[in-house]
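[audit] Reproducing an earlier prediction to check determinism. Same input, same settings, fresh worker. If the tokens differ from the archived copy the diff job will pick it up downstream; this log only records the rerun itself.
[audit] input (527 residues):
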Amino acid sequence: MGLPRKALRTALTGALCSVLLAAGPASGAGSVAGTGGRAGAPVVRFVDVEGDGGTVLKANVVAPADAGPGRSYPLVVLPTSWAMPQLEYLAQAGQFAAAGYVVVSYNSRGFWQSGGEIEVAGPPDVADASRVIDWALAHTPADPARVGMAGVSYGAGISLLAAAEDPRIKAVAALSGWADLAGSIYSGRTQHAQAAAVLTGLGFLTGRPSAELRGIMADFLSSRLDQEQRILDWAARRSVDRRIAGLNARGTAVMLGNAWGDSIFPPNQYAEFFERLTGPKRLEFRPGDHATAEGTGLFGLPNDTWTSTRRWFDHHLRGVDNGVDREPPVRLKSRSDGEYEGYRDWRSVGSAERRLPLGGTQRVLTGVDSGANGGLVLLSGALDQFTRVPPIAAVPLLPRAFAAVWQSERYDAPQRIRGTSRLHTTVTGTGASGTLVAYLYDVGPLGLGKLVTSAPYTFHGRTPGTPFAVDLELFSTAYDVPAGHRLAVVVDTVDPLYIEHNPAGAQLTFSSPADDPSQLSVPLREE
């Protein structure tokens, strides 16, 4: 029969605590007082915090060893990621405390030992963040004038939403999160099935989804078009891009970090949100998949994302003149090399452009996977990060009955792709609904294509046989195509990452009218 879920969660919490506490010395933060740590190490307390509506939130407090009467420290509040226990940030909290911060990390409502139900960053979650700040100011030597929030994934979303509502929050670091929830898991009007299924499954395993969440996900995954507007409204209430006015009015310092291959919250929506911020801001993109760019830091290992987060808070909460305010606010690392690049804004990324014509007419049968696909959620981006091996397709062997293919000439010089590629084409379907997925490949001399980027697109309510224009943003990326290689654009109708809406036996025709030619616009870095 196995352990009950509550007992299993308790056992896993204890095991993870042992691992993270053991990582303390390696992180440079020292061990934890009360757990065999040495003198002068940060002190940890496990506490219950009353959240919104009296819901009990399980939390831990990590404070400097010299904390005492008459002293105050900047406060950093860390809501946990989706399905993660309250010990998620313990290694990083130790490093913050050693640098002179009070850190309160808490288990988001509905997960593990915290009370309540999973609301997906709904109003109770936002109110919880403010209640945790209230508690910290009343029970720790935290300075009310120096409050910051940070988090990974779900914790990033809650942090941004809370900062938009609570004027006490002066700085935020949102890592692998979202600004537009619908734009993340429903981009191109296409359900990101693997991402939604993974999140839903983990929610049921480690927490208690609310009735509203269960209903929303059931309608989403079953493609209830009659409920589409309700789902979009639900997502909009949980999207900070609709509440940006509060952040801009107060000049909240916002740092955004994400991975190019994030298969749950793709980077495009962060880049668009960043451009709309008017206060102090920073945008960092690195190779990886969802939460992998900051993952090693959760075990106390050296990590660029967490180093940037501490520098951000050091400047905006402690007043340290570390130069972060004078550096280019956009910081990118290409998937192809280890060097960081700085830009003054997102528009400057990929300021040059190459246009690939998608000429002629190509017709494909729907409902069959051609062999071109975006990989697996949470895995493919991580494999690319650590081995530089993205999903691969043998482009010459892709069956032309199921995939439209266009290729460029071989390039004499490297093509440094930076930013967001945009597809424009004309589509004629034999059904009122349909789904297509566009891919951009780096094709080597042997015809093997490495995936550069991709994105899905779904249409409904179209008149069969009537052409219509499609404009699609592919997921933003930074990738260097070697000299001697070519680019290939592939469009098919099935990808395991997504739910497709092609009627049985349907066809899609891609054409390029003379007065509206089809093309892919590829942004390039100016040398």
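[audit] rerun output stored. Observation attached for the diff report: The chain has 13 helices and 23 strands.
[audit] end
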